[in-house]
Structures are given as C-alpha cells and as structure tokens.
Design a protein that fits this description.
Blueprint lengths: L2 E6 L5 H15 L7 E6 L11 H9 L16 H4 L2 E4 L2 H10 L7 E4 L1 E2 L2 E2 L9 H20 L3
Parallel strand pairs: 1-2, 1-3, 3-4
Antiparallel strand pairs: 5-6
This protein binds 4-nitrophenyl phosphate.
C-alpha cells in the first residue's frame, strides 16, 4: 500500500492542508483503502497543535475538515515507514535530503514538480495566502494521484 508523508516547516499551515486535500481527492476517486496519508513538519515548535485556524477555515470553505489533525515533527523512522515524502518547498526538500539515511527507502520530491514550484509559506501573510496555498496544493495532489494509476 503506498504511503505518503506531506512535509512543511511547522506542520500547521501547508502540510495539514495537503494531508486533508490528498485524502479528499483519494476518497473522491473511491481509493481511500489504497493509501496511508500523514503529514509532519521539519520543525517541532508546534508539536501536538491543531492546524492554524486559517488552514482549518480555508479547508472547511472547500468542504474538507482538517480540525482533528495534530502537528508532529518528522522522525528518523519516517524515512523507512513512508514510500514517498512530499515537500512543500525547496527548503523542506533540502532538510529532508540532509536527514535521510543513505539506505532508507523513502523517495523525496516536491509537491509541485511540473513546473517545479514552492507552495509559499503563508504563516506571516494574510488570508489570500491561504486560498493560494489551497489551490496550489489541490493542483499538486490531483497530479500526485495520477502517479498511482
Ligand atoms: P507551515 O507554516 O510550514 O506551512 O506549517 C509555518 C508555520 C509555523 C511557522 C513557520 C511556518 N513558525 O515559524 O512557527
């Protein structure tokens, strides 16, 4: 069963949305039994926290409930537990590359690969940033599912 871990910096804004949106897209395709889907942050400052209220709101506006998610930091075992670790931006990807043990199984990639772009960190911006994150993550998650025919 494919297992996917979405990764950002804090695991309260972008990657919880990616976890919720990918689960939603997978469910809409009738394939919820096919995937293990989680999210985590490269940093641990928000460990145990729910998603940022702005992420909860933008998800709810689009019919997705992410309020029960809780933030956690990536751990060494993730690199063997997950087949794929999907970074929201190039900084996150660099961090993952630096921490991945050379014999670990996980493949690492950016969420947006064609063309390769960052999902911009919305934490210090306004509400428009969260709608942009939603749209970019939806694009990336829709694309990602096509990799699993
Ligand atoms: P995220 O956004 O990486 O999309 O969850 C951030 C959340 C918190 C912080 C930075 C980015 N922070 O510095 O606390």
């Amino acid at each position: 069963m494919p297992s996917v871990l979405f990764v950002c910096l804090g695991n309260i804004c972008r990657s919880p949305l990616a976890e919720g949106i990918f689960r939603h897209v997978v469910q809409a395709a009738g394939r919820e039994a096919d995937f293990v889907i989680e999210s985590a942050g490269t940093g641990g400052w928000h460990q145990g926290d729910p998603p940022d209220p702005r992420s909860i709101d933008i998800a709810r506006k689009h019919g997705i409930d992410i309020s029960a998610q809780r933030a956690r930091q990536i751990r060494a075992s993730d690199f063997d537990t997950f087949d794929l670790m999907v970074a929201m931006d190039a900084d996150n990807l660099r961090t993952l590359r630096g921490q991945k043990p050379s014999d670990a199984k996980a493949k690492l990639r950016m969420l947006l690969e064609s063309p390769q772009r960052n999902v911009p960190d919305p934490y210090y911006g306004g509400p428009d940033g969260f709608e942009l994150v939603y749209q970019l993550v939806l694009e990336g998650c829709t694309d990602l599912l096509r990799h699993y025919p």
